[in-house]
Amino acid sequence: MKGHNIEDALTLESLNRLIGALITTEATQNVWVTAELSDVAVRGGHCYLELLQKDPATGRQIAKARGIIWANLYPTIASTFSAATGQQFASGIKLMVKASATFHPVFGLSLVISAVNPEYTMADLLRRRMEILNRLKSEGILEDNRNLQWPDVPQRIAVISAPGAAGYGDFINQLFNNKHLLRFDVRLFPAIMQGEKSPASIIAALEDILAEENPRQGVVIIRGGGATSDLQAFENYDLAASIAQFPLPVIIGIGHERDITVLDYVANMRVKTPTAAAEWLISRGADALTRLQLAATSISSAVSERISGCLQQLAYLEGILPTAPLRAIERSRERLNLAAMTIAQSGERRLGPERMRLQTIIPRLETAVTTRLSSLRDKLNAHARLLEALSPQATLNRGYSITRLNGHAVTAASMLKPGDTISTILASGEVTSTVTDR
User: Fold this and answer.
1) What are the chain's domains?
2) Phi and psi dihedrals of 255, rounded to 5?
3) Sign of the CA dihedral running 103, 107, 113, 119
4) pLDDT tens-digit profile of 90-133?
5) H helices of 67-211, where?
């Protein structure tokens, strides 16, 4: 171009070196920077990654830089970060890193990372979890699944797990080999249990459970051991909301005892392992069996006491029956004698003062007394005949007999068996027999 000398032009390398000199200043060295990770890759012992900044309102990317952790520092930084947060470096995690800006003539701008502050990441993870929980609470669904009641003996169980997973195998083995011999109807609804596709896969499995014609009684979501970083898939609002609003009680058994996700706050119950989920279901059935056994024992005891009381009452009645007629006759005779004495005494008291007056009514009195005594005598004779007719001896005189086995009256053929020796009481005499057939 006219007015410009070719000799004055810079080469691209020279320009990049000049830019590098301008960038590499005290202000850009060992500074703390907050950013979101992306495209993490480890090659040759070095960790290469992208650092992003997004607009909080729109999620639009507003800044990006390439970062690197050299191999001499990466193992220490990664292990320290994992021990503190339970996470591995992965896309989507927010970091606070100590970085120094460098500008290479060929590779351009890079941030060389020399340290990571894990407390910032932990605070961000907790903040995101609290945002989800507060949102669920504001929507009024946080406690919905936790308030559902399990049936006393849950047997039709839906399981969401990865097919062939060790955790699912442990769950089935524990459930179907229980010492109480409880039976369960279990169906697996397969889902992806780690990675970005996991929330949508689990939500789809929940929808399949509701589509079943014969409803299940509860859901168990299980996942065996693995990297704690894999649990980030469960820190998801859509999945948490689906479980919170699910109409069946849900058990969460993912990770280990120390691992907590947002799902543990919304599900009906959290257990530490898949095996623990099976143990809890078994304990529900075992408790129901115990209550049933106690009820059966109580019923058996009450029936035994009632039968014993009836047998005692029957024995008492059997003992007093032979003497009951005689006692009735004796009581009637005593009442008659008392009545006769009373009449005689009453008449004697009144005869003295009114003897003269009675002289006029003696004939009528004699007639009345005679008639009254005759009537009473007839009634007494009738009672005596009735009591005599009802007595065991009268029954025997009519041709009946009484058969006894070991001193007890035989009232049914089923009480006898071949070889029994029985005694038969007749109107006159007693016969001893041996049963040959019945």
Assistant:
1) 10-130 (2.40.50.140), 140-287 (3.40.50.2300), 397-434 (no CATH)
2) 75, -145
3) positive
4) 777 888 889 888 877 777 788 899 999 888 777 677 778 888 88
5) 74-85, 118-138, 166-176, 198-211
